[in-house]
Amino acid sequence: MSASREWLLTVKRDGLTRCTFKAEKVMRPWSSSRFTHAIMVSLDNGWKLEFANRRDWIIFKDLYKQCSDRNIPGPVAKSIPVPGVHGVSSYAENESNDFPFQRPATYISAHGDEITRAMARRTANYDMDSEDEEWLSKLNNEFQEHVSEDNFELIIDAFEKVYYCNPDDSLDVKSAASCCQDLGSKEVVEAVYTYWMSKRKQKRSLLIRVFQ
Hints:
By secondary structure, this protein is an alpha+beta fold.
């Protein structure tokens, strides 16, 4: 923490502080090396942070977000809210029909890391926002084929997974259409692909947080 009580990130090498920078609300743009596949972040002083290991990159992003969140002043509550409670008269009657939770003797854990679970997930990791809803509404007005919100999210999810696994290979329209044959017609997939590419370039990163 700095003298002005701002949370900063410090880069050290051989025990010496090389640079210090503030974690802003919007994370700095990053790029991927086409040769080493390492993720690189440029700093204001000309330095570049290079992450050859994706786990190190994920740890850095988490630290960056924690510092960024702490730099945003939270609202000051005038009073502490007290939640209200009320009894459920029929709860005791139905309790015998339920299966109460039995705490296991070991810790509850999930198998694999976050990326592994995201890649194996059958439902979409991507959640539509208001911009997507507006664009999809226009698409459905122009096309005879109706594209559901679920299918739109699954198509975007498929693009994100393919690009994450092969960041140096260009995902062109033809490849995009072939990987989403079961989610929509060729025309629909190509339209969503064009929209996805435009939005990804605007944000300068992948759209699903776990793949960023």
